[in-house]
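protien #1 (seq + structre)
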Amino acid sequence: MRASRASLLLAAVVLAALASLACTLPGARTASTPTPTATASPTSTATPGALSEAQAEALLRRAVCWYADPAMARTCLPLQPDARAAIEEMAQSGDRRFIAPLVDMADLDIGWWPQVDVALRRLTGDRADSPAAWRDWLAKHLPAPTTRGYAEWKARLLSLTQEPDTKPTYRELLTERLGAALPLLHWTHAQPNASKPLSTPRAVTGRTATWLEADEVVYGLAVGGTARAYPRRIVAWHGAVNDVLGGQPVLLAVCAPCGSAVAFDRRLDADTLEFGTSGLALQSRTLLHDARGGRLWDPLTGAAVGDPKIALALVPMFTTTWADWFARHPETTVLDLTTGTLRDYSPGAALAEVAAAPGPLYPATPVDPRLSAKEPVLGVTAASEARAYPVAEVARRRLIRDRIGAQDVVIVTEGDGRAIGAYDATGVEFLRIIDSGVDLVVADRDGNRWAMRESALINEKTRDTRRALATRQSYWFAWANAHPSTSLFAP
């Protein structure tokens, strides 16, 4: 992660220097270099008080050098005097609609931070010591008023950072349909698809994957009679894996800052979607995009940002060790270490930056204080309610009987670091776990034995089943921010 950011910033500096030279040469703005789109500008003696919609829009356009062709915005780096004057006029205006855009500008850190910081202090009457701190301030003071066309303006702002020919463009990703999420969207200093999402990647047999260590984490999927393991050390670099298992298109959405990986069905209505990474984060959840509709997607919930009614179906998955998964599925395949992308796939390398951060890697609203921000939890949704179970508590108890709303549930695990499953317990009183070798077996009050599978608990005698419930493992802050009304398991 650090290497990719450093490369991007170095490229930006070089381009900025070239642009600066071009802008200072006599006659630099010629017919081949269009001038910014003309818009009525407020006077430079703006007094405190709300500006008209047209005046506010004009100031923002001057700040990002608004061209008819958004790609031309990069020619305005480093900042020209008129852009600096526009920031000063925002500060003098007293108009709080500029707060969210100024926080967006602070995120980019391309030479205007001191002026932006002063403007934010004047407009808010508050102080923050960094762009991240201002993003935190904004999150605490939502909803944030914004100007007309804020989505397009933010897309134009991020165009200042976008490499030529990068697809998708931010103008395709940032639209008004994102609604109230727009002010919270944070640029991660990565270009869209810079993480090189994987599509139908090569897999090898489990027996040949001798490079895998027994206790390392894998994400295991068993779909349509086909089992496959996705080592965390690989997929954490890529953010998204588009695959087909047992004839079913699946997405493995990996959000390293969230501490999560979740599997979804890639089919939506009549379409099969292909997912990539956006370079944007919402509440420190790194968002995905789909190549067809240009929507942004939450990697933890599977919902379209701005329209949670549009959501991908969950595919049951186990987060467990390689030894555990291989014992369960001796015929499993494994994502090949050769992905076609140069990365340090040694254990832990992909997550080094996340692991070193004491809290969320990117800005997020204040963390629910019931647990520490990065406490691993199992999030369960049932009966339209959400509940979190600390993973350490589940591992200690191994079997938890609970009721979420009107839904009886049972949560079982083989132990620390092993697969955890949450299941519908309607009509069955599960009592204890029986260690029986490869498969975890749960005994009920009537003496029946139930085998633990990814999709269900299966009665070994009657073949009756109790379906798996929707679960995700993540850090507490990510689950709580995605499910603000979540309850927390109370032993």
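ok now protien #2
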Amino acid sequence: MSEPLGLLRSATISNGAPSARNLLVTVFGDALLPHGADTAVSVSSLAALLEPFAVSERLVRTSLTRLVNDGLLATRAVGRRSFYGVAPASVPLFRQADARIYGSRRAVWDRSWTLVVIDGSEATPAERARLRQRLTWAGLGGVAPNVMASPVVTAEEAALVVGQVGGFRNVLVSRSRLVEGSGTIDEDELARRCAPLDEVAAGYDQFVDRFECLERATLEALEPSDAFKLRTLLVATYRRLVLVDPLLPESLLPEGWAGSRARALAAFVYGGCADSSERHLARTAELPDGTLEPDPTWLHGRFHVG
């Protein structure tokens, strides 16, 4: 067994792999939702997909229940069996995550900033924390208590997140250029506050160290089950990094930014295992009314692969 394959096959939830919850969210967002928003699969097939990570069916069931309670997934009863899919209300959240994970990077910047100010007296601390988390996933960074900012997320996108979370009436959302002067904050300082670049870069460096050993020949030789495990491990790991990366414009990033290397590597590995992994998904995922048809063509648009 080559070292890259040894590292892949030894990756379990107790040995370097993401949690069962993270893996399930990745399977639904990366592999199942693209086949249709109404795609639902059985517990046993989800357990089979995650079994290589040493995730038991009992843990799958527990994690699914929690994801349903959180509103991310929904159940569909067919006879005495339950099938799980993305909750309709959470489809936009998954789509937003897809855009950040796989979409094009950093358009030309107009030097404006979107600012979101959350009224500290509105809602509960837990509700305000949930809104801040969702805004972080959308790409905004915290610059002061209950104040978030981004140079790339539009005001309309930020306002949409506020509306999706719900329960707020006094959140201020605006977009404008900074007025720099004596005693005012400048672009570099605002970028530093909303993006912990050292922490983000360290995460990207670890990602590169973990996956750069994979070569084209290794990827092409993978069995379909190993290809699916690699694809899920790759996306689950990369997802955690990119969803806390505010994706700053190039002019605000340090030279040789680690995120660019990590994205190029993710594109390479994903493209190398996409077709085979999709075949494994198609033969493993059990739907209420049949099986998935393997259709790897759309995978090659991700990360602009192909």
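The longest strand covers residues 73-78.
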